[in-house]
Structures are given as structure tokens and as C-alpha cells.
Amino acid sequence: MNKFLYILITFFVLSSCSEYQKVLKSTDIGAKFKAGEALYNDGKYAKANKLFAQIVPNYRGKPQAEKLMYLYSSSFYKMKDYYVAGYQFERFASSYPKSEKLEEASFYAVKSYFMLSPRYSKDQKETKEAVEKLQEFINLFPDSEYVPEANQMVKELVFKLEKKAFEIAKQYNTISDYQASIRSFDNFIFEFPGSKLKEEALFYRLDSAYKLAVNSVERKRQDRLETAKDYSKAFKKLFASSKYIEDVDDMANIIEKELKNYSSKS
Questions:
Q1: Residue pLDDT, tens place only, 19-76
Q2: Are 33 and 68 in contact, with CB atoms under 8 Å apart?
Q3: Which domains are present in the chain?
Q4: What is the pTM of this model?
Q5: Contacts of residue 92, Cβ cutoff 8 Å, sequence gap at least 6
Q6: What letters, b where the CB count within 10 A reaches 16 and e where it falls short, cover 128-148?
Q7: Which residues neighbour 59 within 8 Å (Cβ) at sequence distance 6 or greater?
Q8: CA distance 260 to 266
């Protein structure tokens, strides 16, 4: 970069900063609104947000308030401050139910909740809340152009809940708490019958039931073997070509052999 161009850019940056500070300290709310909107349109959301925050109380009840509140809410979203964005967009939707921006604001409110959902290994309170909010949006605006995206977000969030439940159940299997593992996988299968993790869930449920049975005291052994046998049948009925089928067959054969011992005793 040549020296003249560098000086020119520096001049404009300093000039721009100086103008912004001047407006920021000004008492002219109209100038703040105009400057804030210009900064927003220029992608300078943090600066715009500061100006909007200063004048929100002054415009309350005025015709320009609707536009201001939308830009103010949107600036939080653009800044990735999703907690505040969700709150402000919901507040906008509640304050301006007849606004032409109602649908858009409602969508970005629920998308903010989606963005707050943590990875599956964390507590999923925000994920569950986001699913509820998205379903409410879909029900309220069934013909919205945003519905396909909202549906996709619901799918992603539900899978996160599935993954959380699955990993908890699998962890019980890993630490040899087989009864807790079976209960957890039963709950998983009941809550998420169409899950893409169902094959693995059924396998690890069988694995837990098998290990629980073969390591049981004599008085509980036969009943638990019968339960494991039922689980092996359920797995093979649904996933006959599974990558786990050899392991399932091995367990089923041992279970059958063990149960024959009880038949021969009776």
C-alpha cells in the first residue's frame, strides 16, 4: 500500500470515528436514529446498537418505534447476542402483532433459541425450549417461507436430544450398570421410535441384557436369559442385515444353550 493511500484511509477512519463519537454524544435523537440505521445497513451492528439503545425510550409510543425496535432486535442477532436477540424479537412480536415484520421477527426469535442450544454432552434445557418455540412458530405460521428451515432446525435439535439420551444409556453399559442401561435404552426406544440411532440402541440394550443375564445369581438367571432372548429376536426382526448381526447371533446362541440347561432340568 503506498503512503498516500494509507494516509487517505487513516484520515477517513479517524473522520468516521470522530463523526460517530459526535453523534453518540449528541442529544439529537433523530440524528442518532438516522446514523444508527446507516451503520446497521453498512454492517456495523455494534455501533448501530449503541445508538439504538440510547434512543429506544425516546421513541416509545411513536410511529417510528416499530422500525427502531426491529432494527434494535436485529442488531443483537447480527452481533450473535442470541439471548438478548430472542428476548427483543419476542418483545417486538408482542408489541406489534399487526406489523408486516411480525413473521420475520417471530422466526428470528425462535432461531435465536436454536442458536443457544449447546452440544449434546451439555445440559439440554435450552434445546428443549428451542424445540417448543420452533413448534409454536410452525403452528402459528404454517405457510411461512421459513417453515422448511424451522423444520430442519427441529430435526437437528431432536437428534441432539436423542444423542444425549443414547450416550447416557450407553455409558451405563460401559460402566457395567446393566439394569440402568436397559431402563435407559427402553426409555430411549419409547421416546424416539424413529431415531437413526435405534439400531445401536437395540444392540446395546441386548448387550446389556445378555451380560446382566449371564452374570446373574441362579434364581434370577433364567428370567433374565428369557428377556435377553426376546431382545435378540426384536433386533433380528428389524435389522437382519445389521453390522452387529454376528455379535447378536453369538449372544443368541449362548442364550439358547443356557436356556436348554434349564429345560433339561425340568
A1: 888 888 888 898 889 888 999 999 999 999 999 999 999 999 999 999 999 999 999 9
A2: yes
A3: 20-115 (1.25.40.10)
A4: 0.86
A5: 69, 70, 73, 99, 101, 105
A6: ebbbebbeebbeebeebebee
A7: 29, 33, 65, 68
A8: 10
